[in-house]
Design goal:
Length: about 190
Amino acid sequence: MYVPCGWKIELQAIVFDLDDTLVVRSRERQMLFKEVTAATGISSLDESSYKNAHYEVDGHETRAPIFVEDSTTSPECLAAAYQDAVNDAFETVDDIDHLLEHLTEQSGYRLAVLTDGPVTAQRSKLTQFSWSKHFDDITVTSELGTYKPDSVTFETICERLDAPPESAVYLGGNPDTYIAGAAAVGMVPI
């Protein structure tokens, strides 16, 4: 296989990011916050506060630490309501099940997901999609105690797939973290 930059590789494994690669949100985050406030009865959720806190608690099991305690609703309840809204808002990219089946069954590639985020949140997204059965490994970086672009994340997924980094492709949408991190360990980034 030839990749656009002219490298020749013997492709063995394909690693996908999850959010905004395999699945996309059908509604903006602010709309999800409105759904959570309606479901829980709290007055409001602030997107900028959420985004700032998100990166501070990324290694946690759930997003509960992101949400400040409301007088009537616990952070755990808010996190659960938010996760329900997020899961409901995710849609897969077109024909992904067919593509993954082709890559594994007809082409023989080993497939994996490497995703950032709290373990419970990321794994709950995957359970709703039947195509997750096509993956040989699913790694949530918070399980490793780090996140992309740390080389540990990309090296670990290659080890789990028993594929040298130079024989693996990483598909993700963020050039500064995902693409740079994959390239730094020798994976072919797309």
